[in-house]
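Reviewer 2 asked us to include a model.

Predict the structure of this chain.
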Amino acid sequence: MVIQARGRRQIPLTFSPDITRSPLRQRIQGLQYEMQQHNSRLMLPIQTRSSPRKRLTLSDTPPSAHGIASSLYSPSPDRIRISPLAKRQKIENCSVNGVDPEIAIKAISKKQLENVMEKLLLNHPELRQEVSRLVPTPDLSHMEEELNFLKKNIYKSLPNTRLESKTDSLAYNRVSVHLQTFKKRLVESSKSLTDGEQFTSLVDYCIMAWGVVKATPEWDNPPHNSIRKSCFKHLSTSVMKALKDGKFSRDQLVSIQKKLNNLKGDSDELMVCIKFLDFYLADSRKSTAL
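Predicted model (structure tokens):
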């Protein structure tokens, strides 16, 4: 008995949850009363327990907190502010309306410029022939500069010391990121020319990019040359696409055939295009002879 008296208080065997007057219960009720007295105006009402019959009559969806908060608190008129999107729209309208279109067109993106041209030709179809006459051929000089710049980055990442190899696996790991960037840029440029149906410029770009890809390093491990091979394959596929969809004259096809024959030793991927040109030109000779 002495040991039990000195230990922790034990829960009586006849414990009942209906006891409402205990020191702990009185302390909790006192704290709740003080919180209700010092409650702010933003405090939500305390949910009270209801009987099972009363709960059955309530709706299944609880009220949203936004509705309760809005009913308790309404901001003063001086705190109502305008949306930032509305302000931005007003600022954009004011800035565009006061600038000439020749100057404002320099700040928009390529997609926005395409949308402007589509709307202009849709509203004024009589300008279609004049616009098509004024559209210049794609400038390939900046595309060539980008490829040469990325090729320089590849060589800059190679080891500079004489004791290290520049074509082993360690060197490849150092330049693999630059090789992926080079391939990505090559694919994007050819895709833009294909989407614009500029097939003559596409053939010229592929012949130009072929020499740049040829100048990239070759690795000792054959699997590491997969990016180089995929670039050659993509260029040959683009040339084949241009030959099939483009409307070339016979003289243009003969000129393309000569250029491709000079490149066929670098990769076997180009042989499909050369055979297609040989067959097409031979067929055209037969038709003209008849």
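The mean pLDDT is 78. The radius of gyration is 39 Å. We have added this to the supplementary material.
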